[in-house]
Design brief:
With 1517 residues, the chain is α+β, with helices and mostly antiparallel strands. The chain is built from 47 helices and 72 strands. The strands form 19 sheets. Strands 8-15-14-17-12 form a five-stranded antiparallel β-sheet. A four-stranded antiparallel β-sheet has the order 2-10-4-7. A four-stranded antiparallel β-sheet has the order 11-18-13-16.
């Protein structure tokens, strides 16, 4: 029995540490004085004398093999282990003597004999030679606190039903707060608050219980292990001789001797291994095992188990590190023999489940829970029971997991059956559930022994059958089953059985295995079976269906036919489970041959589903398998409503198996434990390939169903018939890929050289240059591989950005599909080419179904959309391999070609290979051929790579043009281009010599120039030449206009000339006479332009060989260039002296520099209007600004009343350019001969795209205009009764008001040209300012204070008349409005408050005029006083002053010479003026307060310097 003789201590307090080998306590140290600690003999008194023990029997080979099986010694040198075995001391364990394991004690290994091991009240098992015990004691890990508290449950669900507890809770909450938007709690906040229906909530709860039942607090089985909280089970080890003798009828030789045990201490291991090459590996292996051991000790699921059992589990465990977002397993994945119990050591895992959304009823993979350290994933009860995963598990962050393989886990539990008591309660509940769910008749009919028997006989056998439940480690066969009369026939219904021999598992039996049939039916025994084999339960639960011989005989007596069958039975196949009987009854397979059904049955897999587990999800895309129910019940849910229940015999998923639909039509959820058969689609296809005669049967089924249009389908087969649909769905493979890896869910790589249809998810195709193409559901790609085309240069790789479902067709599969449809191969190839062309067009920015590809040709850019769409339907794709000739010069042609993929080269005949003409995407060939102007191809073009063209034949174009509704297109593509009907391939040289430039050149010169020449077309308004383009002899082409017209636009805009048939275009740049294009040549607006393009390389060769002809061309071109230069010089002068200065006066350009304004003015054209001519009319749409350069214009309202006059420099339409108000508010009519420029808003904003600072300034100005319009400023700042912000007139005035900000101390003077747009007003909305008059040398104290309200209006004309200035005392916000804008608004919508405004204006004008007049008189008297002083008349001046200075005006004179106030005494000669006291004095005077003495003294000097050099003026514009 495991004893804790010393005080109980926590695990790890005395752990083994590196570097302390010499100080480690001896493994033999114990209370028995250095020998192995043993307890008293079972049943003996403590004082009884000990019997004499024989000498130990050594077997070093057994000992060495046992050492090699220890994980911390498994990597050591075998020779070292042999030496360690030879040095290990041995002793004899007395009969029935108990072995006690303790900390810091040697590891005990059974060398001979056997021991009995038991845990708690569980069954005892035999420890045969080679059994190692107490390995944990080597490292001080045998003791364990009986009251240790395991790590709390660590699962947090989206339903908040299960949450962390204890100290971990706070940490988990902190982690949750730091997560981003896809966090579980935030992602499902909406779901929790109502988007989840009852079924979905129940599904999530059931999923979590099935996913980690041992972690959830409700499932911890504490009451079964002694009543305490995680009370430890006790373990005992005794000599097995007596016990074995009582259990078995005979004593094998190995049990008749006493037990020899060897003690291997840590000190001995250290002395043997240290210093060798195996030492480092020993330390690493030891640390790994100890790490797993500590983690398992902290797990709640193992809290009750003795440390010896936990150590055994740590030895079989495997620690794995998973990266962030790495998938651990996938939902519905059927775990194989490598199924494991998973413990989370560190990090966080994310559990997600496929659910049908309650909003749009679409399948979505949603996070349902987070698993934190301490969580246990898996159910020990149903490991290796064909139960698929209930959810997918991912690493939310890097995590460390411990995997306990199921097979090895059950090996440990079989060795210590009592340890399974930790799961006893759950095991009993599961056994009861299984008995309710499993069907006896199904179990019987699934065996070959009872196959095809009468149903009444099966029911009779089921009635006499008895279910027996066994637990792990239990023996299956009873001791009384020695004769046929007492024999029992057992059918394995659930769980696995271990076939053990000498304590080792040599085989496992599966569900459906029949045991005891040879004795039951009196058959001869098998020669291969040995007598010492035992059958023990290999899983936590095993259910056997037991039939006693006597009761079975009674059933046979009632069924004589079956009795004859069993009497003739001589052998069985061990009763393997069969499934073809269920398959043959399916409607889908009725009429199929038995061999075909048997072939399918070989691929059938058994699946079991827990209660509440989803078998399939509505709108989900899975492997397309067929589900057949064998037992249990499930409910079918469509759009959240239960529509029916299904049970044994039901079949689901036939259309998915055939590939007719991709997604499931309903959600199926298990109501109890369900056993199903799954017919996987790959197995079905393989069986169909092996039985080709069955294809006709499924073709007929396919025709009875219409493919669901809502499911993704191959666009390359969009026009296919049902037969092609059937074969594509039949042969195309369907795979599920994890995120980030182009592999199957099992990790197998998927082909990249195949056509792929994305059914669900998102896939990125990453090319060699790291550019990406993203493919979403419904998109297919890679169809070029079906045609055998090579991958693009550099290749690409595929990377799923999410979990994806795809359908894949390789070239081999495609050839197999075509083999079934030989007559449709050409049509299928054409469909694939068409789809390739559409996708390439999409990559070029052309939407699917759009005729945009025809826009590459100028012929169709001028045509109607209806006509272009008709032509688009006539295009045919053509594919050319590298090196293939596309068109041949001189050959008869019928089609125009548009290159949409690849590169090709045009041969330069007679010019060598040094200058080939490369053609790229968008190049159009043979436009004249399709129009019929030329019958032969003008050049030779061959492909340098894989090239794809869209082609249009002449006949198809004519068929479209024959429609009467396309009369304009017939003229556009026919009569308008008839300038030269000669076939240019044969008569190109003669045609060229008809033009003036080439009239005096030789025929040979023209012949060389015409080599490789071709025809090009330009749509209306397109540029043939672009101003500023660089030119170079040998590279720049020249054009000859054959038909249509072209317009020459110089640098400054406008039309310089019109070119007609026969004109040369771009000859200066082509001949090397100009380095850049000096003008733009644009096609006329009425039709196409047809040009002959002379290649630059041909011109260069001709000019080099025929120098005289080249000189003639140079002379002709020079004359044209000289006339153009004179015109441009005059225009530059006009822009510099007139236009730019006018723009500088505009308020919206007040902060623009001269260089930018010149760029804005460059395209402006001068417009001249005679007297009475209307420049713009009120109510017309406005998108431009008009600036008057010369003359005068009247402003009239819409009703015809004159409201103002514009002079040179006047502007209208600023708000239209800013985009604030798109309508003219006044009619502008020239009063005399007037010139102006019109600036379009589009041109201005396009220009400012290259000047972001200027653009932002205009945008802020526009935003300010909108803001002040909404607030009604500035009219709302005036005391006008009846005025409100929503008034139309108020807003109209605010729309045109100019907002001005003045800082404290800033001064503004009205400029002399401020009245070019008529009178203006200043309205002060915030702050204070004062009005100052007089010249700078004789300034006057403030005569009026402006502030919001009655004192907030200032007529600008009055200030200009009397040279008054405004100085800001505080920060000032003011608005400048034009009088004509106010009158226009009032005339359009009369308002009552305008009369009050006029009254206020009169009062302010009268008051200010009086003040200004008095101030000017004072200024004048000051001058006279200064003059009198210089003449010695100072006394007379003093007598005059009191009579002149008014007490109301508060004006003080100063002496320019002294700089002091005259009223303050004589000036101080030689003092320097100062401005430090001016502003306080102005503020005091404005407030009506007397100046302080210091202010008076400071002001005396400061008032002499109120000038622009002291207080900088701020212009309002």
């Amino acid at each position: 029995m495991l004893q804790d003789n010393d005080d109980v201590q926590d695990v790890g307090d005395r752990g083994y540490r590196d570097g302390e080998h010499d100080e480690a306590p001896s493994v033999h140290s114990s209370k028995q004085g250095g020998r192995l600690s043993r307890g008293s003999s079972v049943g003996e008194e403590g004082s009884s004398p000990r019997r004499r023990l024989p000498e130990p029997i050594r077997d070093d080979q057994v000992l060495a093999q046992a050492l090699a099986r220890q994980p911390f010694l498994s990597h050591c040198d075998p020779k070292l282990l042999e030496r360690l075995a030879a040095d290990a001391p041995c002793s004899v364990l007395g009969r029935r003597e108990e072995l006690v394991l303790a900390n810091d004690q040697a590891m005990t290994i059974v060398v001979s004999g056997a021991v009995l091991m038991s845990v708690g009240s569980g069954a005892s098992t035999i420890g045969f030679p080679g059994t190692a015990l107490g390995a944990a004691g080597l490292f001080g890990k045998t003791r364990r606190s009986s009251k240790s508290t395991p790590r709390p449950a660590s699962v947090r669900s989206c339903l908040d039903r299960i949450s962390p507890e204890g100290e971990e809770s706070e940490k988990i909450e902190m982690k949750e707060e730091q997560e981003d938007i896809d966090d579980c709690s935030s992602q499902y906040h909406e779901m929790v608050t109502g988007a989840l229906d009852d079924h979905m909530r129940q599904t999530i709860e059931s999923c979590l219980v099935n996913l980690c039942p041992h972690t959830l607090p409700a499932c911890l089985d504490t009451e079964e292990v002694g009543g305490g909280s995680h009370q430890l089970l006790q373990m005992s080890i005794i000599d097995s001789v007596e016990a074995q003798a009582s259990r078995a009828g005979s004593k094998p030789d190995r049990l008749r001797d006493h037990v020899t045990i060897a003690q291997v201490s840590l000190e001995l291991i250290t002395e043997t291994i240290k210093g060798s090459s195996s030492w480092d590996q020993f330390e690493r292996s030891r640390d790994l095992v100890l790490g797993r051991f500590r983690a398992l000790l902290a797990s709640s699921v193992l809290a009750c188990m003795p440390t010896e059992v936990v150590w055994a589990l740590a030895c079989i465990g495997e620690m794995r590190t998973v990266k962030r977002d790495q998938m651990i397993f996938k939902e519905s994945e059927l775990a194989d023999e490598n199924e494991s119990l998973i413990l989370v050591q560190s990090g966080v895992l994310r559990a997600s489940k496929l659910l049908c959304s309650a909003r749009d009823f679409q399948a979505e993979d949603r996070t349902i829970a987070h698993l934190y350290p301490g969580a246990v994933v898996g159910d020990v009860r149903f490991l290796q029971s064909s139960v698929p995963r209930s959810a997918s598990l991912y690493a939310r962050e890097e995590a460390e997991l411990i995997f306990l393989p199921a097979r090895r886990l059950f090996d440990v539990l079989a060795q210590f059956p009592g340890a399974a008591a930790a799961f006893a309660s759950q095991a009993r509940e599961s056994a009861a559930m299984l008995q309710r769910s499993l069907c006896l008749t199904v179990t019987l009919t699934n065996t070959k022994l009872f196959r095809d028997l009468d149903a009444s006989f099966i029911r009779a056998v089921a009635n006499i059958s008895e279910r027996r439940i066994s637990f792990v480690g239990d023996l299956v066969k009873g001791s009384d089953e020695s004769t046929q009369e007492t024999s029992v026939l057992r059918i394995q219904e659930f769980g696995l059985l271990r076939v053990e021999q000498a304590g080792k598992c040599v085989a496992m039996t599966e569900v459906g295995t029949i045991l005891g049939e040879r004795l039951f039916f009196n058959m001869p025994r098998s020669q291969s079976r040995t007598g010492d084999q035992e059958l023990r339960v290999g899983t936590l639960i095993a259910i056997m269906l037991c039939i006693s011989w006597k009761q079975f005989q009674r059933v046979l007596d009632a069924h004589p036919f079956e009795a004859k069958l069993f009497a003739a039975l001589k052998h069985t196949d061990a009763g393997r489970e069969v499934r073809d009987q269920h398959l043959s009854s399916l409607e889908l397979l009725k009429g199929c041959s038995r061999s075909f059904i048997s072939s399918i049955a070989s691929f059938v897999m058994r699946r079991c589903y827990m209660p509440g587990q989803t078998i399939m999800v509505q709108k989900s895309i899975d492997g397309g398998s067929l589900i057949v129910f064998m037992s249990g019940k499930a409910q079918v849910i469509v759009n959240g409503n239960v529509v029916k229940e299904v049970g044994p015999g039901a079949c689901l998923g036939e259309l998915c198996l055939l590939g007719l639909v991709h997604s499931r039509a309903a959600t199926v959820s298990a109501m109890c434990f369900c056993v199903c058969m799954e017919v996987q689609r790959p197995g079905f296809l393989q069986a169909l390939a092996d039985h080709p005669n069955e294809k006709e049967h499924f073709e007929l089924l396919t025709k009875q169903h219409v493919r669901a249009t809502e499911n993704p389908w191959w666009s390359i087969f969009s026009h296919s018939n049902e037969k092609l649909v059937y074969f594509v769905n039949l042969h195309a493979t369907r795979e599920s890929t994890p995120k980030g890896a182009w592999t199957t869910s099992d990790g197998e790589p998927l082909p990249e050289d195949a056509a792929v249809l994305v059914i669900q998810g998102e896939i990125a195709r990453i090319k060699a240059d790291n550019t990406e193409d993203i493919f979403t559901p419904g998109y297919c790609f890679g169809e070029e591989f079906l045609l055998g085309l090579p991958p693009p240069p550099g290749g690409y790789r595929l990377e799923p950005r999410t979990m994806c479902e795809v359908q894949i067709i390789t070239r081999e599969i495609f050839q197999k599909i075509l083999a079934h449809m030989p007559d449709a191969q050409e049509e299928i190839h054409s469909q694939i080419l068409s789809e390739m062309a559409v996708k390439i067009e999409s990559a070029l920015g052309i939407p699917r179904g759009s005729p945009g590809v025809l826009n590459f040709s100028a012929l169709f850019r001028a045509c109607s959309q209806q006509f272009v769409r008709q032509v688009r339907s006539q295009l045919e794709p053509m594919l050319f391999q590298p090196g293939e000739v596309i068109i041949q010069k001189g050959e008869y042609g019928m089609s125009m070609m548009i290159l949409i993929r690849g590169r090709c080269v045009q041969d330069t005949e007679g010019l060598g290979d040094e200058a080939p003409v490369w053609l790229r995407q968008g190049t159009v060939l043979a436009e004249s051929v399709v129009l019929g102007f030329s019958q032969l191809y003008p050049c030779t073009v061959h492909a340098t790579g894989l090239c794809l063209f869209q082609t249009l034949s002449r006949d198809r174009l004519r068929d479209v043009l024959s429609d009467p509704i396309f009369e304009r297109e017939r003229w556009l593509l026919g009569e308008s281009l008839q300038g030269n009907n000669a076939d240019l391939v044969n008569h190109m040289t003669a045609t060229l010599r008809q033009y003036q430039l080439f009239a005096r050149t030789s025929r040979n010169f023209c012949s060389m120039v015409c080599r490789n020449a071709d025809e090009v077309y330009f749509a209306p308004g397109e540029d043939i030449l672009k101003r500023g383009a660089t030119c170079k002899l040998g590279e720049t082409p020249m054009y000859v206009l054959l038909a249509g017209e072209a317009i020459v636009i110089p640098e400054f805009g406008g039309e310089l000339a019109t070119l007609r048939h026969g004109s040369l275009i771009g000859e200066g740049g082509a001949l090397g006479l100009a380095t850049v294009r000096t003008a733009t040549v644009t096609t006329w607006a009425n039709g196409l332009a047809r040009c002959l393009r002379l290649q630059g390389v041909s011109l260069q060769r001709a000019c080099a060989e025929f120098t005289e002809d080249y000189d003639a061309l140079v002379n002709f071109s020079s004359k044209r260039s000289q006339s153009n230069a004179a015109f441009e010089s005059a225009r530059k002068e006009w822009l510099t002296n007139i236009v730019v200065p006018a723009l500088q006066k505009c308020r919206i350009f007040k902060n623009f520099n001269w260089k930018l304004l010149y760029k804005i003015a460059e395209p402006l054209l001068k417009s001249t209007f005679s007297a009475g001519k209307t420049i713009c009319a009120a109510g017309d749409p406005a998108s431009s600004m008009i600036v008057l350069l010369e003359g005068r214009a009247e402003l009239t309202s819409k009703e015809g009343e004159i409201v103002g006059t514009l002079h040179a420099g006047g502007v209208v339409g600023e708000v239209a350019v800013l985009g604030v108000f798109p309508m003219r508010t006044a009619t502008v009519r020239a009063s005399c001969k007037t010139s102006a420029v019109c600036m379009e808003a589009k041109h201005l904003w396009n220009m400012l795209n290259h000047h972001p600072a200027a653009r932002q300034a205009l945008e802020r100005l526009a935003e300010d205009s909108r803001s002040q319009t909404a607030s009604g400023m500035p009219i709302m700042s005036l005391p006008l009764h009846g005025c409100f912000a929503e008034d139309v007139v108020v807003r109209a005035v605010a729309l045109h008001a100019d907002r001005i900000l003045l800082g404290t101390g800033k001064m503004w003077t009205v400029p002399s040209d401020a009245q070019t747009s008529g009178p203006h007003y200043w309205i002060f909305a915030r702050g204070k300012a004062v009005l100052i008059v007089g010249p700078p040398e004789h300034p006057v104290n403030p005569i009026f204070t402006f502030k919001p309200g009655t004192c907030g209006l200032c007529p600008e004309s009055l200030c200009l008349e009397h040279d008054a200035r405004v100085c800001a005392l505080t920060h000032v916000e003011a608005f400048r409005i034009a009088r004509f804008d106010l009158l226009l608004a009032v005339h359009a919508t009369p308002c009552a408050w305008f009369r009050r405004f006029e009254k206020l204006e009169r009062e302010v004008c009268n008051h200010l005029r009086s003040k200004i007049t008095s101030a000017k008189a004072v200024v004048e008297m000051g001058r006279q006083l200064e003059k009198s002083k210089s003449q010695g008349s100072l006394r007379k001046s003093k007598r005059i002053m009191p009579s002149l200075v008014s007490s109301k005006s508060q004006v003080t004179l100063t002496s320019p010479s002294s700089g002091k106030l005259l009223a303050a005494g004589e000036p101080k000669v030689g003092s320097r003026p100062s401005t430090s006291g001016l502003l306080p004095a102005l503020q005091s005077a404005a407030a009506g307060l007397p100046a302080t003495p210091s202010q008076k003294n400071d002001t005396s000097a400061a008032t002499t310097r109120i000038s622009r050099s002291v207080l900088p003026s701020v212009s309002p514009v």
